[in-house]
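Here's a chain:
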Amino acid sequence: MKKAQKVRIGISIGDLNGIGSEIILKTFQDPRMLEFCTPVIFANTKLLSFYKKHFKLNVNFQGIENASKVIDGKINVVNVWKENTKINFGKEDKFLGKFTVKSLEAATEALLKKEIDTLVTAPINKNVIQSEEFHFPGHTDYLAKAMKGDSLMLMICKNLRIGLLTDHVAVKDVAEKITPELIQKKVAIIHDTLKKDFRIQKPKIAVLGINPHSGDNGVIGKEDEEVLKPTILKINEKGTLVYGPYSADSFFGTKNYQNFDAVIAAYHDQGLIPFKTLSFGRGVNYTAGLSRIRTSPDHGTAYEIAGKGEADFTSFKEAVFASIEIFKCRKEYLKLTKNQLQKQSKKL
């Protein structure tokens, strides 16, 4: 009997002067990780050898030309570039930013070709990757364009899931960005992903208000009364269990979030501050709504500790496991729904 192929996890290297390579190598230093997946790191073997020596890690990897040559049961490193790279931990470096982009683009291409099953991205510095060819505020926007889909940033940790109506948007622009169309689209994405990727048959979703106290019936801003409430009611009438808007200041302190399968925050900090407070570095950023699976740790490049060997790899490891679990859930869902459609067509 042929042995089942393990999930192939593609990994983009992130910022070369940050903690990305450290948390990647620390995660796969544990040989038991290879019982769950086959990692495919998009970088350069010389670079990884430098990090291995610098951090004194006992980890072995296999260099390959491209992702079609993956060796199961090994830590694979796709040699995306041949140039030597000088690492200066904790420093912004636009020259090194080119290699961050090369890694991400190569990993995304492999993902689209199904040479890897999922993608886990190490943290990037958004400033150093900008160029005439690459101008995206972050991973999510780039992947949404590459996969021609609508995306939603969904932060996950055990049974806590927080999505965002707007993500990398200045606070002063949030209210005007939130339209009935955007709310309907984001609710649809999160409802679909809860069913498809998390095995929740009838999801319950909470929406947080835009203004303090959800506007206090229009006293503190009219967006909640005029945009959020009627749109939520309209969605609910169609059978989706979505409720709100809830006042964000008390929603988490009263543990009301535990009554829902997911929460949608109006803007970045409204969702990520309570999430990171509750998840204590175990959280994962999942890009919902795309045709392929991408996760990442819930932290940044951590320049202040880069190169010191102090980086905690817990969140990255959780991102790997979340990636595996979501891949299996989606595969199972697609198989079940495909069989269901085949049965219905036969009856017709």
Observations:
- The CA atoms of residues 17 and 64 lie 24 Å apart.
- The chain has a mean pLDDT of 93.
- DSSP finds ten helices and twelve strands in the chain.
